[in-house]
Amino acid sequence: MILLKAIIHELIKEPAKKGIPEIRANVAFAPELLDVKDQAAITLVESIQSLYGTKGNASSQGTFEFDESYNFPGQFSKFINSEIDDSTFLALTKHSMNNLRNTASSKNFATGGYIVFAYYTQDQKSFVLTAMVKKKNGIKLDHLFKPESIQEVDLSKLHQAIKVNVASYLSAVECKKNDIPYSGSYLSFISPKSNTSSGYFISAFGCTDALPAEVSTRNALEAVVQFFEENESISKLKNEAHDLVIKHFEETLTRTEKTCSIDDLNQVVNSLIPISDENNLIDSFVEYANNEPFNIPDVFYTHSTVVRLAKKIKLQGHDGAWVLNFDKRMLGTTDNADIQYCKKGKGTIIIRNLSNKIKEELVSAISKRN
Known about the structure:
alpha+beta
């Protein structure tokens, strides 16, 4: 990670008390940006970034709500399309703090904390990150809101945060200009959904859930299969994992809400991990799947059509002379696939790993035909 810009402000807000129905929020602004070469500042942002999308900090995926009642999306657009320097970054963070103050004031039981803003690059991609860190969570600041010491262990759970993928955001803007539908997401956010008083954070930034159920369901299934494929010690279990996830999806479709969580999928994955691999792989699926390229939300609706199509594929020859009906996961284009489609030449299909019973039936059929 390369830290480009960073600053810490404070949102001051106490929860409502008996006899005092409303306590308005206030803001304490830092006078200047942090030194991006300061190790304490780097450690703080790296700590937040490393926790983002891990178990206990799974994020939801979405986009900005471009509505007049939400002014942060417009502020962010102005920032990205301007010459990005200290003054434009500082202006963006101050606008953001004003939004937070206004929205938090309307929530009696909302509480404040340090608000960390960072603009950085990672894996050649640019991100803008905003996260709330409670004072008790191990961050010690001086009078200028500059970190003096960071206790990473105390940052084990992010309270609230949003992260914007700049390149994906610009792609979405370009699609909108050309009237092209954009079905992806460019931001993710962490917010305790069980606590309505905490909703002011994502509301202040104009975040909305926007990743379609179809995309989330397909990405979830792909993430599970690739997770097993990429870990050699469990790669042979990828088909079993595929089947268990499909079974879980089918179970969620019987529910009233028809939703699946990334923690549910994590439990499915954990159930297949051998004891010998638990130290390295147990609970590692959440971080793998909640981040790019899969971006599976914390909770999403299961898409029935994706589940149905993921199970079976039926091929029928001319005039119904032959029929192949098999699990879709068996199909591939490489020589390790049970059913391989060879694109080159005449486009043939190779079926491997036949059971002895099937072989005997084929031999018997051929002998009877002759």
